[in-house]
Design goal:
Immunoglobulin-like; 2 domains; globular
Length: about 250
């Protein structure tokens, strides 16, 4: 059973395994045992061989968003967060994700429990030239004795690097460019890249910026009827100066 609740903290003991042999181009582990008095803070660490990538929660034109299945020995709530991704191009098209490695912060809440066994079954995609579905498993034990200081330090750094609240986008509208729909964004300051999530199947491609950096246009594909985006709420993740930000805007 997975549910949201408060927590009495103890330490984490890590044990992990993957469901693939070592020849696979990835390794998955759970790391970290920080406790803030209400929740444990751990992380899903995905390490990739050179040239391989994995995908963000919105994978782009192709690829697979990761699916996390958690099994807990006591009622617990597990929340996964994502650092700002990068944009890639491969044989499948434009994809969004991470190369080399990524640490996804995880918050674990389990009421007043002082011990907890937690197992992760991860279904995700990895890519070198094309996307390959993959599975891995990892487990951790929460208890009063064990510590993982190196993992905790890495998780703390990953949490601090998560996208912060932003306000760089001042307006959003749907326009037509070369006979095709595009998202037009007014920007208070220049940005490096913008990733857009919306309900439905529409995909927002890499942005084109005006010379002064105060306007961005993102072509929209996989959209049968542009009218369905009228007034839609968008979740934006953008990068400026190497730092990630998140903002919610509505198409005007």
């Amino acid at each position: 059973m997975i549910r949201r609740t408060a927590i009495a903290c103890a330490s984490l003991l890590l044990a992990f395994s993957t469901s693939f042999a070592e020849k696979q181009p990835f390794r998955v582990a759970l790391v970290g045992d920080d406790c803030d008095g209400k929740a444990w803070h751990a992380g899903v660490l995905i390490e990739l061989d050179p040239g391989w990538k994995t995908y963000w929660r919105m994978p782009g034109e192709a690829g697979l968003a990761p699916e996390f299945t958690w099994t807990a020995s006591v009622p617990a709530d597990v929340t996964v967060q994502f650092p700002a991704p990068a944009r890639h191009a491969d044989a499948s098209g434009e994809t969004i994700g991470y190369d080399r490695q990524v640490l996804l912060p995880v918050t674990v809440s389990a009421g007043t429990a002082t011990e907890l066994d937690l197992k992760l079954d991860l279904f995700f995609g990895v890519c070198k030239d094309i996307c390959i579905p993959a599975r891995a498993s990892a487990s951790l034990r929460l208890g009063p004795m064990a510590r993982d200081p190196l993992g905790t330090a890495r998780v703390t750094a990953a949490r601090q690097a998560l996208p912060a609240p932003g306000a760089a986008v001042t307006a959003a509208s749907l326009v037509v460019e070369d006979g095709k729909p595009a998202l037009k964004l007014a920007l208070a300051a220049p940005l490096d890249d913008i990733f857009v999530e919306a309900k439905g199947s529409a995909y927002f491609h890499a942005p084109r910026f005006s010379a002064d950096g105060h306007t961005a246009w993102l072509p929209v594909s996989n959209l049968a009827d542009p009218a369905t985006l009228a007034g839609a709420e968008l979740r934006l993740t953008y990068v400026a100066g190497g730092k990630g930000y998140e903002q919610t805007v509505r198409i005007g």
